[in-house]
């Protein structure tokens, strides 16, 4: 697994509130939810490959 890197992020209150609720609905932490949203956006834009479906986790 790749090493995680910390990154300070400033987000307005309306956005962070919506992300917090979305994360709670999906039973994720806010950090995990932000990573999920970014990963999906990167894949959709063709900037990140889909994970190997044959690997075991």
TrEMBL record:
Source organism, top-level taxon: Bacteria
Record has Glycoprotein as a keyword: no
Residue intervals of the Arc-like DNA binding domain: 2-48
Residues in coiled coil: none
Leader sequence segment: none
Gene Ontology MF: a single term: DNA binding
Entry-linked Gene3D superfamilies: Met repressor-like
Keyword vocabulary terms for this entry: DNA-binding
Pfam families to which the protein is assigned, alphabetical: Arc
Name of the molecule in the record: Arc family DNA-binding protein
Native source species: Marinicella sediminis
Classification of source organism: Bacteria, Pseudomonadati, Pseudomonadota, Gammaproteobacteria, Lysobacterales
């Amino acid at each position: 697994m790749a090493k995680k890197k910390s990154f300070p992020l400033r987000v307005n209150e309306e956005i962070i509130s919506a992300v917090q609720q979305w994360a709670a609905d999906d039973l994720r932490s806010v950090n995990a939810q932000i990573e999920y949203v970014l990963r999906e956006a990167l894949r959709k834009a063709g900037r990140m490959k889909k994970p190997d479906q044959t690997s075991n986790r």
